[in-house]
Design brief:
This protein has helices spanning 14-37, 44-69, 124-133, 168-172, 199-202, 207-216, 223-226, 228-243, and strands at residues 2-10, 74-82, 88-94, 98-105, 108-114, 136-139, 145-150, 154-159, 165-166, 182-187, 193-197, 251-255. The protein has 8 helices and 12 strands. The chain is α+β, with helices and mostly antiparallel strands. The protein is globular and about 60 Å long.
């Protein structure tokens, strides 16, 4: 198995740090032990459903942990587990950390899947619940912010994503922040790219930018992908500096080197 993840905190690093430790040191190893004890049926559907259920349960467990600790701030998260024998991958994410799955086809890198950030402009579940609460609205003036309070007198509280883990103080104040992740099953081939990153990358660099640069490089197996992370971080920093301010960039790039 392989696992990669990004946790991007807001309001301090505590929630992101606690979430990453709990997922990688406790929840994923426990799930893997259970999986290895099962007499696996031959179809991929069963395995995919296993990981969907366990990743959703992991996010719920993390939220309970952060609530019980009254953790300062919150975190978005993006977790991918990969069966390196079959190429089956399950992605689970919450908030605006997004994942890209791409493949080189006839010499050109192409997007196969790009997860959607959870924002108040198009998160139907949040929109439905917010509508019933009456005092929630979506501030679209710059980057979308989910807000609570009166538009005229000013919002009482806002957050840049509709889903996140933690946020004890914001939730206690009455702001609607969902903690339910979204999941997606992917099927990888040898040499495919998986890139998971925080909004610090995606706000200034598009998937098309990334794949155009990869396509321009000479084909060399996974070598180009291995060097992608540092170069993307530097490019994002350069683009942020052109805007006159910075956002932190967290990312992990993985080239699928399968065993099957």
């Amino acid at each position: 198995m392989a696992a990669l993840a990004v946790f991007d905190g807001h309001g301090g690093p505590q929630a992101a740090s606690m979430a990453s430790v709990k997922v990688f040191q406790e929840l994923l190893p426990k799930s893997l032990d259970l999986l290895q004890q099962e007499p696996l049926p031959p179809d991929y559907g069963w395995i995919a459903n296993f990981w969907v259920q366990h990743l959703q349960a992991s996010f719920e467990s993390v939220q309970q942990k952060l609530d019980s600790e009254k953790a300062v701030g919150g975190t978005v998260a993006n977790v991918v587990v990969v069966d390196k024998q079959t190429g089956l991958a399950v992605l689970s994410w919450i908030g605006d950390a997004q994942a890209l799955h791409a493949r080189r086809i006839d010499g050109t890198w192409q997007v196969l899947y790009f997860s959607q950030a959870h924002q108040c402009i198009d998160d139907e579940e949040w929109i439905s619940e917010a509508h019933s609460l009456k005092d929630h609205w979506c501030d679209r003036r710059e980057k979308p912010y989910a807000c609570r309070g009166h538009r005229t007198s000013g919002p009482k509280s806002c957050i840049g994503t509709t889903r996140a883990l933690g946020n004890f103080g914001l939730i206690k104040s009455g702001l609607l922040v969902l903690s339910k992740p979204q999941t997606k099953t992917l099927f990888l081939r040898q040499g495919d790219l998986l890139l998971s990153a925080s909004d610090g990358l995606w706000d200034v660099v598009t998937p098309q930018d990334i794949l155009a640069d990869l396509t321009a490089l000479s084909p060399s197996g996974c070598d180009n992908v291995r060097s992608l992370g540092p170069s993307l971080a530097l490019e994002a920093e350069r683009r942020w500096q052109a805007h006159g301010f910075m956002d932190d960039v967290s990312l992990v790039a993985w080239c699928a080197e399968l065993l099957g």
